């Protein structure tokens, strides 16, 4: 499923309005942060999509995301005036560490009377996608033996300990899986957990 050698250059394109919005937000963030590249990380859906693309893992691991998740230490956010930089680009602080801006140049058509669906819990899908990436990258249980990685592995094992538990329920709902497809995906996730994270 994975390429033997990961790509060092990757070109992604928007396949939907949500993707377009996410890429606009990524471009805005790159503009706002400029040369400050060593002190933050893009996390969440965009990061996972890029890693899946880098390892050429296929369209099955694709997920739309219309926002950008940024991991930045508070001291870096303060020292580099990240909030002011975002506000200078027209973003408003809508809650705590969440920023948004209006766009008027993205066409959107909804079928008569159709409303956009509320955002679903997508971290479960990202966990599955990251397990596939970890397999491609050759990670093993020793890589998750201590510290924060061991704690994360324990959380993942718990989330996916049951076919009808919170992790699998969220994954099946987000991907609109049939009962049989959800059973197959659960089997795959449990196999990945066993191989990559090891037993508890």
Short description:
This protein is mainly alpha-helical and 200 residues long. The protein is built from eight helices and four strands, in the order H-E-H-E-H-H-E-E-H-H-H-H. It folds into two domains: 17-100, no CATH class; 123-197, no CATH class.
Task: Write up this protein.
By secondary structure, the chain is mostly helical. It folds into two domains: 17-100, no CATH class; 123-197, no CATH class. Helices cover 48% and strands 6% of the residues. The strands form two sheets. A two-stranded antiparallel ribbon has the order 1-2. Strands 3-4 form a two-stranded antiparallel ribbon. A hairpin with a 2-residue loop joins strand 3 (92-95) and strand 4 (98-100). Helix 1 crosses helix 4, helix 5 (123-136) packs across helix 7 (166-174) and helix 5 crosses helix 8. It is globular and about 50 Å long. 21% of the residues are buried.
Jot down its keywords.
single chain; two-stranded antiparallel ribbon; globular; 2 domains; 4 strands; mainly alpha; 200 residues; 48% helix; 8 helices
| Low-pLDDT regions | 106-121
Biggest β-sheet: strands ordered side by side in the sheet: 1-2
Radius of gyration: 19 Å
One letter per element, helices H and strands E, the order comes to HEHEHHEEHHHH
Helix tally equals 8
Whole-number count of domains: 2
Kindly name the structural category: mainly alpha
Please, what is the average pLDDT?
83
Helix content: 40-55%
Number of strands: 4
